Amino acid sequence: MTQGWGFMLQSVAWPLVLLLAWWLGERLHEHWRLPRVSSYVAVGLIGGMVNLSGLTSDVPGLPFLANVALSLVLFELGYRIHLRWFRHNPWVLVHGVVESALTFAAVYWASAWLDLSVENRLIVAALSVSASPAGIVRVANEMRSAGQVTERVLHLCAINCLMAVLALKLVVGYWTLSTSGSLLQAALGSVHVLITSLAVGAALGVLVPLLLRSRHTSESGLAVAFGLTVVLLTALSQGLMLSPLLAALSFGVVARERRVYLTNAQRNFGTAGDALTLFLFVYIASLMSWPAVLGTLAVGLLLIAVRTLVKVGVSVALARVSGITLRKGVFTGLALTPMSAYAILLLEQSREQGFTPAPEVMAAMAGMMLLQELLGPLVTQRTLMAARETT
């Protein structure tokens, strides 16, 4: 009888929590205009307190589903990137690279307050480079935001994600070299993963639009084809020990360059994309350890302050030469505040591929990740509203 109740609890825990997160997100968004994703994170955090992930530890496929959800967001982010813009205004690309490098250096310096090894401090710095595509894209879509700040934030988010993976793979490669002494193993674990992931995504970005143009495909059919290809990319990348997030990003960038366009109504892949986004934020938040969160809140605030100062500072310093006002430079830096969903899945993938210090890094960054994911979307939303780019 007890086993029957335990099985029943495992079966209904996630559906009930997701339903609660949806209901709360709708109510708070309607009455207080809070971003829905912040409500999802809050429910996931409460789920973590009652051991939601432990209740569903026997449910297979949750990590894969989370990767699919984030990969769909990264495809959409890549799909909104205009490579020609980088050629017409290379300062945007310079902005992304310089800001990523300075964020890495500043957070590495500030992480000296953490009781971590040099390798782990490097990992914290690499993850801090990233912005959360799920948080930023979801808020931009929710607010129907469009304009200079929005487009710049989306492009800088993509650059941040790419630079974060590059930095993380190099650090993991350095760790592999220092522990195993094998240069070949270190290279296969870093450079190989980076290049191959981008190549696989780019190849499908050429092939899928070619197949779609060979016959007439409805607008809804385009969304289905791209969505299923992202699922295929995720499964293929996990099987080959590649990065599904990078593959999805490059797939989106190349697919847009092949001039097969999705309409605005198909952003976030409709209802299915909404449901997967809801699951992603609840799942990510449920992975956080509350003892670790409470023990690292002070350091988390310090790292957030350093990270935000660099992003805003670089945005303001390069605002004029890159074609925007100082005011919009401040908004651009602030809108890049969300971070943790992308960073947590990167850490999870590194752990699955043999990076044993990943749990220690997760615990050290718990406070920072909680604050960034809970409050970051709100900062992005209010920033885009202040920039007068929302409807």
Describe this protein's structure:
Helices cover 80% and strands 0% of the residues. It has 391 residues and is mainly α. The chain has a single domain (2-386), classed as Na+/H+ antiporter like fold.
Annotated CATH architecture:
Up-down Bundle
Strand content: under 5%
The SSE order reads HHHHHHHHHHHHHHHHHHHHH
Total number of β-strand segments? 0
**Biggest sheet details:** none
In the residues, how many domains can be counted?
Answer: 1
Q: What is the SS-derived class?
A: mainly alpha
From the spread of the alpha carbons, the general shape counts as globular
Please work out how many helical segments DSSP would assign.
21
Q: Could you report the average pLDDT, rounded to the nearest whole number? A: 84
Structure in a nutshell:
By secondary structure, the protein is mostly helical. The protein has helices at residues 2-32, 36-49, 52-55, 62-79, 83-88, 90-110, 118-129, 133-142, 148-180, 183-189, 191-213, 219-239, 244-257, 270-286, 290-295, 297-317, 319-322, 326-335, 340-352, 358-364, 366-386.
Features:
391 residues, mainly alpha, Na+/H+ antiporter like fold
Explain the layout of strands and helices.
Layout lengths: L1 H31 L3 H14 L2 H4 L6 H18 L3 H6 L1 H21 L7 H12 L3 H10 L5 H33 L2 H7 L1 H23 L5 H21 L4 H14 L12 H17 L3 H6 L1 H21 L1 H4 L3 H10 L4 H13 L5 H7 L1 H21 L5
Helix pairs in contact: 1-2, 2-14, 2-21, 4-8, 4-12, 4-13, 4-14, 6-7, 6-9, 6-16, 7-9, 7-20, 8-9, 8-21, 9-10, 9-18, 11-12, 11-13, 12-13, 14-19, 16-18, 16-21, 18-21, 19-20, 19-21
